[in-house]
Amino acid sequence: MKNVSIILLATGIFFFSAVSIQAASISVSPSSGTQQIGSTFSISIILNTESANTDGVDIHYARFNPLLLQVVGSSISAGSLYANTNINTVNNTNGTIDFSQSAAGGTHFNGQGVLATIQFQAVAAGSATITFDFTPAATNDTNVASGGVDVLTSATGGSYTLSSPPAPTATPTPTPTRTPTPTPTRTPTPTSAVGSPTATPTPVQSGGTPTATPTPTATPTLTPTSAPQASSNTSSSSSSSSSSSSSSSSSSGGGGGGSSSGGGGGGSSSSSAPSQQKYIFTRNLYVGLRGQDVTYLQQFLVDQGCYPQRIISGLFGGYTRAAVMCFQRKYGISAVGYIGSVTRGKINEIGYYITASAPSGGSSGTPAAGSITRNLYVGLRGADVTFLQQFLIRQGCYPQAIVSGFYGNFTAAAVKCFQRKYGISAVGYIGPVTRGKINALK
Question: How are beta strands 24-29 and 152-155 bridged, if at all?
């Protein structure tokens, strides 16, 4: 019995020594780097068996942040270290990769090589990592099998900096050169014999004719387009004459005419319809950005039926990303969840139109833009609620800054803040007193 114990002990020492020699490792290459939003880059999974004859490898799981990275395609590129690929799946929602390979019967792999290659696309700015689920000697996570034993001793991931692409350089608009206006020499006014001054001649420039200095034309931000509009209600007689009286009032009748129709000389009843202008998206948009273009994007996605939350905040967040993916799937574009050149081109092709304000003096029959004419309270929706929310942001009373057009609890709290700021009873809804103060400050 004593001899048997010695033999077992010796066997145990031998087994331990054999296993300790077999120390395989998994790593990624490159293990760090900087990538721009929208770019694609490849990362290789490197296997080093450290002289062990291995039968197969399980990557269960490799993990990444799906808000920052997306794997291009539904699988990764398998290497040729082993003959059989058993599992190769990617979940871009959860951010996981499940991959497994095994050797053909009677063969092994011993050495170092590329197990698989992952092609990622950077979708948002931040610090992204790739990690492996790994516990030494466990067989239900990432492992390397050799004779029925897990010989993997380390699984090292990588860390990558994802940065925003450089802003496009705006083409400077040349400043018009003003032609200096010569100062005319005034002729002294002669005095008549009776002391009455004579009329002063009109000064002229050297050419003999006064010349107006040209006024430089400002470059418009929005491009007027032929957006679909309702047919004009203006009669042909009133629109064809450029010399007719241009009163903005809707009651411009000709001699003896009534308030809505011309009598005698005849008039026209016309209202200045707001013009439609097409907004052109010009930059890449992704999670974390804010801006007016994000606000327009969110409104566009609502119109496309891809944004059920309808939160018009100007912040590109998770809901906006999901809505962009919905739009991309709708039009057969790779659903990456950010706005690049392809998606931007499609949006501009479809067109998002902005209603410009009616010309000054026009009579539209509706309240002027940016005014509140009714009581507002929790549960209401409308353009006046949108204006109220934007106004409260400017007043520093609406930190959530959710411009949705819906009067909810955040809006009620912001109204109370505004009311306290101006010594009005903080009731959280818009009545005549609060409405008057807002309209006075707008």
Answer: parallel
**Residue 46 three-state SS:** strand
Phi-psi region of 3 (alpha: psi -120 to 50; beta: other; left: phi over 0): alpha
Q: Residue 302 class from Cβ within 10 Å (0-12 exposed, 13-18 middle, 19+ buried)?
A: middle
Phi, psi of 209 (to 5 degrees): -125, 130
How buried is residue 367: exposed, middle or buried, by Cβ count under 10 Å (0-12/13-18/19+)? Answer: middle
Strand partners, 60: 98
Region of poorest pLDDT, from 41-50, 328-337, 372-381: 372-381
If one counts every other C-beta atom within 10 angstroms of the C-beta of residue 241, the result is 10
165 is written with which tokens?
A: 């692409």
Residue 34: count other Cβ atoms within 10 Å of its Cβ. Answer: 11
The residue-averaged pLDDT of 76-100 equals 93
Per the structure block, which two tokens stand in for 275?
């013009």
pTM of the model: 0.43
Distance CA 54, CA 48 (A): 10
**So what's the pLDDT on residue 207?**
41
For 195, what's the count of Cα atoms within 13 Å in the CB-facing half-sphere?
0
- Euclidean distance between CA atoms 22 and 24, whole angstroms: 6
Note whether 335 and 71 are within 8 A (CB). Answer: no
**Cβ neighbours of 410 (radius 10 Å):** 17
308 three-state secondary structure: coil
State yes or no: cis peptide before 30, omega within 30 of 0. yes
The pLDDT value given to residue 172: 57
Q: What is the pLDDT of residue 138?
A: 79
Cβ–Cβ under 8 Å, residues 277 and 352 = no
